[in-house]
Design goal:
Length: 334
């Protein structure tokens, strides 16, 4: 008898994993809700712990059958069905060149295809964090939560001394949210009420390895607020890295406008958020196809710091493979 435990989001995931690893004869022994995460994870969420058992003699036969069934399911559709016509044409050419039918590429072939068609600088030439890093972007894209994720990653995992500054004095809730994160992580937090205060606040965090600056969210149509952010940033004497935070749930036309209008703030790279809130990945591929700036991180949930990953091709592809069907639509839970 083999007994195995799975930590999963739902019972369907447990059943799929059990069938894949243990075969169709596996039976559920117990299930319970548990809190998961490392010791440093202050925002632990509850997940489902499922215990499964199976007789050892059943495993080899059933596992083989399941793998064959899975291959058949994957043969009929393309991961890039929702992408642009030009990308589809290039995919067709790639498949013909390699003698592949029905877009039935292996995982490594899919990654190879993307390396060919996507701008290399989007993935491989990131703007790594400097001492001062500013996040800009429209209201509601998740800048404050993203700053908390970066702060937690750098402070807890990379052992950096981190400081936080906000210039978003328009929303009291934004100040309190970032202050709460700073208190949990036990890192210094400052508020710059005016552009002239910004350089002073940075000097007060002079012993920090990394300073993360939260800016006020604004519509790309609000030229006055964009200019105000520019005045804040211009008051900083040191070199800064500026990251545009863009929600993948934004419609394509608006994305194009945001990418263009925020160039006024001279952003260096892009952070994609809310990948977990979309029903297909067409907007993600749209950004990858059309942006001229490196992709730094992608975010897919509210958990700090877990729901953020460095935007490597492997990380992006693995997330999409796990969370979206081959036609680019979200995997439905039943």
């Amino acid at each position: 008898m083999i007994i195995k435990k799975y930590i999963v989001s739902n019972m369907k995931e447990a059943l799929v994993r059990a069938k894949y690893e243990l075969g169709g004869e596996a039976v559920i022994v117990s299930q319970r809700m548990v809190r998961t995460g490392e010791w440093y994870h202050f925002f632990k969420k509850k997940e489902l712990e499922v215990t499964v058992a199976v007789e050892e003699t059943h495993i080899t036969k059933n596992n083989k059958e399941f793998k064959e069934e899975k291959v058949r399911e994957d043969d009929d559709s393309s991961l890039y069905q929702c992408s642009s016509d030009s990308l589809k044409e290039r995919l067709e050419g790639y498949c013909k060149l390699h003698g592949k039918k029905d877009y039935n590429l292996t995982l490594e072939e899919k990654k190879d295809f993307l390396k060919i068609v996507l701008n290399e600088s989007l993935i491989d030439k990131k703007r790594e964090l400097s001492r001062i890093n500013v996040l800009v972007g429209p209201t509601g894209v998740g800048k404050t939560t993203t700053i908390a994720k970066i702060a937690a990653r750098e402070y807890l995992m990379n052992k950096k001394k981190v400081g936080l500054i906000t210039m978003d004095t328009y929303r009291i809730g934004a100040i309190e949210q970032l202050k709460t994160y700073a208190n949990i992580l036990d890192v210094p937090f400052e508020v710059a009420n005016t552009p002239t205060e910004m350089d002073k606040k940075i000097n007060e965090l002079n012993d920090c390895d990394i300073i993360l600056v939260d800016t006020l969210g604004t519509s790309f149509k609000d030229i006055n607020k964009l200019n105000e952010i520019k005045r804040y940033l211009s008051s900083i004497d040191e070199k800064i890295n500026t990251y545009l935070v863009l929600s993948v749930s934004t419609d394509k036309d608006t994305m194009v406008t945001i990418l263009e209008k925020y160039r006024e703030l001279k952003y260096d790279a892009i952070i994609i958020t809310k990948l977990d809130e979309v029903s297909n990945i067409s907007n993600l591929w749209f950004i990858l196809e059309n942006s001229k700036y490196p992709l730094q991180y992608f975010c897919h949930g509210q958990d700090v710091p877990d729901d953020m990953q460095v935007a490597t091709l492997d990380n992006i592809f693995d997330y999409c493979e796990e969370n979206f069907n081959n036609d680019g639509s979200s995997k439905q839970i039943t």
